[in-house]
Amino acid sequence: MFALRGSEDLGIGDTEALKEFVTWAASHGFGAVQVLPVNETGNDSSPYNLLSAFALEPSTIATTPRVIPELDEVSYNKVLSDHNVRALQEGRVQYGPVKTLKNELLQAAFANFQAKPDKKRAKAFQDFQKQNADWLVDYSFHRALVAWNRTELVTEWPAEHRSPIAAQAWADKLDSATRKKLDLSRKYYAFIQWIAYDQWLAVRQHAEAAGVALIGDVPVGVSLFSADVWREPEIFDLVRSSGAPPEKVFKSDPFTEQWGQNWGFPLYAWERMSRDNFSWWRRRLRLLKEFFHLMRVDHALGFFRIYSFPWRPEENAKFIDLTPEQAAEITQGPLPCFVDRDDSTEENREFNRLHGEMILKVFIEEMGEHLLIAEDLGEVAPYVRPTLAKLEVPGFKIPQWERDWDRLIKGSQYPRLSLATFATHDHPPVKKHWTALYTDALSEDQKTRDAAIHSMWELMDFCGHPDIKLPQPYTEEIHQIFVKGLFASNSWLAVHMITDLLGTDEQYNVPGSAGDTNWTQRMNDPVARLNEVWAGVLPAIETAVTETGRRAI
After folding, report:
1. Is the pTM of this model over 0.85?
2. In angstroms, how far is CA 432 from the centroid of its own chain?
3. Is the pLDDT of residue 251 over 70?
4. Which of 196, 353, 377, 414 sits a CA distance of 20 to 30 A from 42?
């Protein structure tokens, strides 16, 4: 979402930009558009670090008078006059200034709504609050306390704010003026969600009218400081942090290479969740189902068993270059490991298999059959994919990772119930990967050179062009071979990242890294100019869509 540039761009992709993109995709024969998570995040720009599993990210709201009735032109222009919008529109997402701008615009809309409420709109807002009271009441309270304390770090809040019961007791003792201010703040955050929900429902309606399916994303975790943990800490394991084990693919920094990715999300107290039949998950999925036709399940491996750390990500640096024994001295014993159980025994493997199957059955019950896509990438246990096949849940096929001994498995041999893609947001785009291989193919070291050329050949062989001359740089010919090669696979869904579709090399995330530049990369061109800028590329892409039978009807 953040990468899109719409016609009324304010420094980040929003619902109107997504509508434009859906229209563009439909015009070229594509039948689906996949987006990253859209739930609200905190100061961390990662769309996977959620401040709420139910609230939608306010920065995705299109904040213009054309789409928000309460935001008049005078208010809109007055807010914009205090910001350098041109600077925000250029380059990467500047989350701080962009969120400040959008918040001021939403505050202006809310002030107008309060001053001159339209009866029909007021009734709609009231109905929204009633229909979503099961999460909205506590969320808006939590969000108001984030603003009150000027930090989302609940651990830095006073004791009387750290739980809903304590906070309510505190609020009940406030003087009338202060209480009125607090209640107005709570109403404001509910108002934001009403606007967001309304816009996202409109996006879905727009996609359906265009004949395009929206593929959403349900993240594996939520922030330790989320409204969900604040409200129901008993359904989380707050001792350990979730993550992923070391992988040879991801070597973004010394810690990730040595220990793996420490995401910092609390684990789930599955036994406690089971007591109410996983109500939290069911409510969460029902909400997302309102906006999306299909749902990617982030890190589906974690529902079988998940890798976890006995320390928070803020402490990662102290463990770099330590041996396990040295690390254990610091933690007083515990080390990163899989939980609830590892796969060291047949009994453990069967326990993990049944656990993952149980959770995914809950997901299927809420979403419906064949509407889930399991992101099953990483250290995949041998029981995961057979379980997904049994449940008829498609998993991912990354061609360069799908091997049959010494060569890549042909796309024609992929199971129909799968999603094929060369890369996800966590991986270098195809152009970047190919360019790195080409550089190695020119190396003076024969072993490096031969390995790179062989990798290039494997990819061209997968795409149906084993006889192409190699090595060669990334050209438009190579680009189109990749585009059509993936579409030709037997997978039900073949999804190119927008970078791979257009043949560019921007990367949106570097796993294991954090900082001001991660999750900030945007598309170079506005959606409205894609046809013009890529006029020399799009006809061949459309031909590939048609010739491989992928064109949406």
Report:
1. yes
2. 22
3. no
4. 377
- Return the biggest CA–CA distance within the chain: 80
How many angstroms separate the CA atoms of 336 and 259, rounded? 8
Whole-angstrom CA distances from 365 to 321, 360, 488 are 45, 9, 32
pLDDT of 510 reads 80
DSSP 57: P
For the segment 537-552, what is each residue's pLDDT rounded down to a tens digit?
999 999 999 999 998 7
Place of tokens 């997968």: 462
| Structure-token match 């790195």, residue found | 436
How many C-beta neighbours within 10 Å does residue 33 have? 20
317, burial (CB in 10 Å: exposed 0-12, middle 13-18, buried 19+): exposed
Amino acid identity at 172 = D
CB 9 within 8 A of CB 87: no
| Separation of alpha carbons 486 and 491, rounded Å | 9
Cite the DSSP H helix spans in 239-345: 254-259, 270-274, 279-289, 324-331
C-alpha span between 268 and 280 (Å, rounded): 11
Find residue 236's DSSP bridge partners.
268
Q: Is the pLDDT of residue 374 over 80?
A: yes
Q: What is the pLDDT of residues 467-498, one digit of tens each?
A: 999 999 999 999 999 999 999 999 999 999 99
For residue 252, the model assigns a pLDDT of: 65
Is the Cβ–Cβ distance between 429 and 523 less than 8 Å? Answer: no
Is 32 in a helix, a strand, or coil? strand
The helix (run of H) or strand (run of E) holding residue 201 is helix 176-210
What's the confidence (pLDDT) of residue 112? 97
Q: Which residues of 198-216 are buried (b: 16+ CB within 10 A; e: fewer)?
A: bbbebbbebbeebebbbbb
Determine the pLDDT at residue 250: 59
Cβ neighbours of residue 282 closer than 8 Å, sequence gap 6 or more: 362, 365, 366
Residue 144's SS3 state is helix
**Closest by alpha carbon to 191, among 116, 136, 230?**
136
Does an H or E element contain 129, and which? helix 119-131
pLDDT of residue 242: 96
d(CA 349, CA 115): 61
Q: Which residues contact 471 (CB under 8 A, 6 or more apart)?
A: 437, 438, 441, 442, 452, 453, 456
Report whether 38 contacts 219 (CB < 8 A): no
